Amino acid sequence: MSQSNESVIQGAQVPVGVVADPQGSALRQRYGVLLIAAVILIVAPYVAPVVGAGPDLLSRVLIWGLFGLGFDLLFGYTGLLSFGQAAFYGTGSFITAYLLTTGIVDNMLIALVFSIIGASILGLIIGYLTLRRSGIYFAMSTLAFAEMIYFLEFGPLRDWTGGENGIPGIPEAVVDLGFFSVNVGFGWPMYTFLAVLFFLGFVVARRISLSPFGVILTAIRENPERAMAVGHTIQRYKLAVFVIAAAYGGLAGGLLGMFQGYMPPDAFNLHTSAELVIQTVMGGAGTLFGPLVGALIWLYLYEVLQFVDAVGPYWRLILGIVFVVLVTVFRRGIVGEGIAWAKRRRARRVAVAVGEPQANTHVRSGVSASALVMREAPPLAEGQPILRADNIAKHYGGLKAVKGVSISIQEGELRGLIGPNGAGKSTFFRMLAGEIQPTHGRVYLRGQDITGLGVTKVCQMGMSKSYQVNTLFDQLTVYQNILMSVLGHKRGPFKLDALKSVDSVKGAHNQVLAVLDLVELTHRIHTPIHELSYGEKRRVEIGLALATGANVLLLDEPLAGMSPEERVQTVALLKNIRKGRTVLIVEHDVDAMFELADRMTVLYDGNFLAEGTPDEIRNSKAVQDAYLGGTEDNE
Amino acid sequence: MPSMSLFMSQVFNGLALGVLLALIATGLTIIYGTLGVINFAHGALFVVGAYAGFSLFMATESFVLSLIGAAVVSLIVGLVMERGLIQRFYNRPHEDQILVTFGISIVLVEIVRGIYGGVGQRVPLPSWGEGVVNMGFMTYPTYRLEIMAIAASVLFACWYVLYRTRLGLIIRSGIEDALMVRMLGINVQRYFMLVFGIGAAAAGFAGMIYGPMVSIVPDMGFRVLIQSFVVVVLGGVGSFPGAILGGLIAGQILSLTSLFNPVYSDVMLFAAMALILIFRPQGLMGVEGRA
Prior knowledge:
The complex is a heterodimer. Chain A has two domains: 3-344, ABC transporter involved in vitamin B12 uptake, BtuC; 413-437 and 454-475 and 528-634, 3-Layer(aba) Sandwich (Rossmann fold). Chain A has 24 helices and twelve strands. Chain A has helices at 3-7, 23-47, 55-77, 86-102, 108-130, 136-154, 158-161, 188-210, 212-222, 224-229, 234-260, 270-283, 290-306, 315-329, 333-354, 425-432, 455-460, 478-491, 508-518, 534-547, 564-577, 590-596, 614-619, 621-634, and strands at residues 174-176, 181-183, 387-396, 399-409, 414-418, 440-445, 448-449, 463-466, 552-556, 582-586, 599-604, 607-612. Residues 1-23 and 630-635 of chain A have low confidence and may be disordered. By secondary structure, chain B is mainly α. Chain B has a domain at 14-119 and 135-219. In chain B, a hairpin with a 4-residue loop joins strand 1 (132-134) and strand 2. The radius of gyration of chain B is 19 Å and the shape is globular. In chain B, 53% of the residues are buried. The chains are: A alpha/beta, B mainly alpha. The A-B interface holds A 75, 79, 81, 129-130, 132-133, 135-137, 139-141, 143-145, 147-148, 151-152, 155-156, 270, 274, 277-278, 281, 313-314, 316-317, 319-321, 323-324, 327-328, 331 and B 32, 38, 85, 88-89, 93-96, 98-100, 102-104, 106-107, 110-111, 113-114, 222, 226, 229-230, 232-233, 237, 263-264, 266-267, 270-271, 273-274, 277-278, 281, 291.
């Protein structure tokens, strides 16, 4: 399968109704891209001089392209916009220059390895600090830390770094593998050397992007909250990709010093970070080719425009305007828009060839729903509840949303949780799921204390929640959505399998198909979420919770907003998924709960009101009063 | 240990720098707090204000007029930015907002460079700002005392508008829940435009009063931008009191460190930010859960 290929571009159109890609086309796509990269690198020296670009320009483009590969994984794939990559570029550049000029290391390749290691360690430190906050905080603090490194380099560390003079006198590049040694001369030999390194870097980056690790990075970009909720420790993924980006920066920086023969101090400069961002966005973030294309445009225009009298002084202004236009109108960048266009064309062609798919035909995947694997759970002692909350409460300042409620649920039970608006059902639910810390009281899952443990750990322990408001990976397909949950189950909270393929995760594909079969979405398998109907999205929402392998499910208003027809279908689905699972449902649709639930709990005004079988609840005076009285109170 | 008067004058320098940073950061933080956009062009607006003021001063020789002019020009630039581009980005991801404001900052700075060239310009001191004041324990440049007073009054005016007027009430409600305010029949969009303009004007105003203390160059905006980022991280993004507290702290860190070793002054500022990120990531006055 080639799910991750498709996730490369946000909102990419995917042929509708094609259940499984033929294996051949996926393979073609996987290696075809590498072939394209190789051809470009080989052909460039023959084409570029025609338009006035020499080996030096192309070498620079390759160094920036290599730098950008790491940044693209960080920004394009994971959505982390760092404005501080100069810190790693500069550090890599400094380490190689320092080691080679002082003679501490005389083998260039080993010096480059040290550059990578040094930049990675710095990446670990800066990443640890900056990733504590996301979004705008991250962009601001990466920028600030890079400035800090810049000031360190120019100030306290100037005895080592040479301050504004940099480090001159880096010896000519020699590739020495012990048994084989060759001098890399300037001009085309240098280009060849850099092209080989770029290609290796490209192969690695592409493998990372197609690995299960890379797929999760996309989940983090699309919807970090849900990525956490389906069992991924996203903080560690973010840190890992931050370090990978730093490593690429370190290598590119080292190569810069070697290529120029001296370490320029402005490698640390803010402009380096800014230009990297601009080049990547212009070329197309999330494509791996983007930074290379962006660097080519940036450096080529710089060389050309500089010598045109009328526009020479304004080249940055022109590029700035182009950048603003691209961000506003063509956010996917040059390569990204190109890929999107090609995909649309292909989709049209497929549609013409096979005809429009029938939207509502029920397609079976051939994998039965019973094949859905649940997490192994230790057996419970006789009579021990599977989920128990002990007098939990949540206060928001003076507002007491939940005032101390206990609940005890037996394995295999389907419990309905009802109550009028404002009864505290959703808050109660969020405390059970580990989303929020109760003000007091404890929650136990299979006898283990899980109070405020966080959604990720709770999910890994076999309990998952579906949300009242759809919380999906909107730009991804149905298959890719479910896969995110399945990977959390099969791989655990974090795994650095960055160089493996998704196929290496055993049983993941069948698990996704089994979930799709259960929620009856097999016919929509490759449809992006944003094209689904509301009812279908609700089923994906439940599917995401199911696919975590959970044996305890918390469903927050699974029937909310459904048409009568969709409601009937979903009630049948709920009957189906309760087999072998413990299910707790918050619902306003009391009739559905009377039909489904073994027992029901009623909350009213943040308090426990009643508990019993549907019949007992139906006839309870207190419940009737609460619903009627509650309505009067509230309106 | 440095002498007492040197120490005190550094404290005052820190205070002057602090209120200036607070003023710039206030613009940044109210735009973020209200519109949810972090304006990477804020430093560029500072530059626009400084140069607009410089030109006006050259033409009119009136410092007060050019101070007002600087604020008005950056207000207009801010309004045009908001109407022309930023408003299309309110529903797009934060990353896109950062990218577009960053792009705008390049365009603005390059326009300034195109008009004035890249060399430094000097805004002369106003006649009422010349000389020094003898404060008993030390003498201190008059202009710096005056800008403390000016910046503090502008900050007070901002506070008054935000917390004591109907306009401020609407803006603060817009921060809490823009949809609800809209449903009450108030055109939030217009207020948002106004907020962006006010934030931009604060940056431009600060640019002009900063002018006579240093020579102005088109590239100075980035440093100011980064320092005001540190200020809002220290104080808490979106918090008005946080911006003031953060600004004052940052000013003292910068000037007191340079008393011992100027080389470390910026490094110490970032070190303080690192500490905040570790121990209180929401900032000193920030609220958990925002941003």
